[in-house]
Structure formats: C-alpha cells, structure tokens
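In the previous chapter we treated chains in isolation. Here, by contrast, the input contains two separate entities that must be folded as one system, with a combined length of 345 residues.
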Amino acid sequence: MKILKKKKKKAQKLNLIPILDSVFIFIFFLLMSAQFLEIYEIGSDAPAVKTTESIKDKKKPLNLTLEVYRNKITVKTGLDGETYKTIENIGDRHNLDQLNKVLTELKQKHVEENSIILRPESNVKYKKLVKIMDSARSLDGNSFIEGTTNGKKIKTKKLFDQVIFETII
Amino acid sequence: MRLSKKLKYKRGQKEPMDVDITSLLDILVILLVFLLQSYSASDLRVDLVENLSLPSSASQALGSRTVLVQINREEKMWVDDKYIGSITTRGEIIPELSEILKLKKAEKEQEIEKLNERVPSSNVEEKALEKRKDGLKRINLILDEEIQYALMRKLMHTSAMAGFPEFKFIVRGSAK
C-alpha cells in the first residue's frame, strides 16, 4: 500500500531584491531634491512706464499706495494720493491686523485691482516690509472676497498681490 | 564520522545563510517618508552665506533658478555664491554689482540666442526655452532681515538698471 504523505510545504520567501533596488534609487532621487530649509519667494516688479492712446475705462484707478514709516502706515488712494487711513503702531510693531482689515475693505470695493505701491521710509527694516507685504497680499483666515470683473464673477483669497516699490528707477 | 563531517564543512558545502533584512527595510521606509516630506519641486538651490538670516513669510510661492544676489548683515555681497565685496557707495547704484549683473545679463541673452538658433525637437524643449526667456528679467534677492530699505532700494535700482526688473525676494516659510 502506498501511503500518501502530506508534505508540509515550506513557506516561500518573497524576493525583495527588486523592490529594494527601486527604493534605493528613489532615496537617491529624493536626497538630491530635498530641501531642508523651506524657502519661498515674494515677487515684486520695478515700476514700468506705459503709454496708452485713449482711456477706455471711465472708472478712476485705485492707485493704492502704502507709505510705511517706523511708527505708522498711511494708506493712500487715488491719483491725488488722498489719505484713506492712517494706521498707528501698537508698541513698536505695525498694526498688521488693522492694515489687513483696511485693505480687505478696499479690495471689496475694487475687486479688479491687484497692485499695491509701497513707499517705505529709508530706515524701515526688510523683515517689517516682508510682514507688510504678507498682510497686503492675502486675506487672513479662510475668508474669500466675491465680486465681478468684466462681467465675470470671481471669488478670491488674494488682496493686492502685485507689489511695486516706488522710487526704484 | 566526525572527521568526515569536518571535511565537508571545510569544503564549503554548508547551506547558504539567510540575512534578516527586516530592520534595514524599516530604516529605509522611515528615510523614505522623511525625504518625501522634505521634497521640493523647485529648482532653486540656496547656500546661505555667513551672517544672513532670512525673514519669515506666509508666502507659498516656489522660487526658480536665476541670478542670485545675497547681502548679509555686514552689507557684504555675493552673486551666484561668488563674493563681490562690501557696499560702500553712497550713490543710488552699486557699481561693482552693476558691472557683474550686466555681464550676467549678456551671458543669459547669448545663451538664449544660441538656443533660439536650434530648432526645438520636442514640446519639452520648446517649453524649457520659453521658461528661460521668462526668467531673463528675473533676479533672486536674498537679504538679511535686518537690512534697511535704503540699501534695498539701491539694490533694486542697480538690478533694474542692469536689466533685471523682476525682483524675487527669497524668504523663509512660516507655518500659519
């Protein structure tokens, strides 16, 4: 009589060599493109002179200008540079929350406008200007501004993201 | 018997040993996750010079590679990681920087002219050329957070006059 013995199958081992090879390649690729210091950019253009033949738009340009002093920020609008608001410092810091509120208010009235002109005093520090640019470029929190430009409805989180420094050229 | 076993052992007829790679795999997975977190799609690489700390910003815009100017707290200048000198001028233009930037601009224009002569073989090449053309006016500015606007104005004025009117201020990201 033949007795059939059930042979115990040996557990097969997975061949991990190809996956290990690909993981190693992936690691090299990631090591090359890794950035351990998170760096970003803030764009700004030098003011450009443009001549137009005729004025098509009857609406007056906003011409939003921020005069940055060490102790205050003056928000000016219009071609005559009329003072819209003066924001005094809190202690030795610029009141950026108030600035953001004022600019949000202006953006709601002029949704189509994207540019802001900065006119800082000579002794204002770069880090303070970066903070001001941050406040001027986007809305705080998760709120949006809705409006219409050229008949199209828009919803934006941006305030005035085209920053131009005056008195460069 | 014993003797024969010993001889077999010496002849290398032992079964191959299994190396346990579980711990190695664990390390690799951790490394992979860590590297994936620090992955950046930007082609901008920055080696910060001494005495320069970047201001923090809420900006999320990724930078791109172009001419890079660094100015540290002591008002020393570097262009593309090459030391240029200290800023001593009282005028609105920094002469040493102006000269170098004009040279860089000419080099970039020559490169693009050469690339223009070649007929792009693929869409990718065409897009790369367009990207290069777009970056012709761009300059990356890495400035110490403590420097004053008077110096920034000089720098921007010099860059604009040398043919780089699009300034990109490089900042440190800050979680909001």
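Chain A is about 25% helix and 25% strand. The longest helix of chain A spans residues 17-33. Compare these points with the single-chain example from earlier in the chapter.
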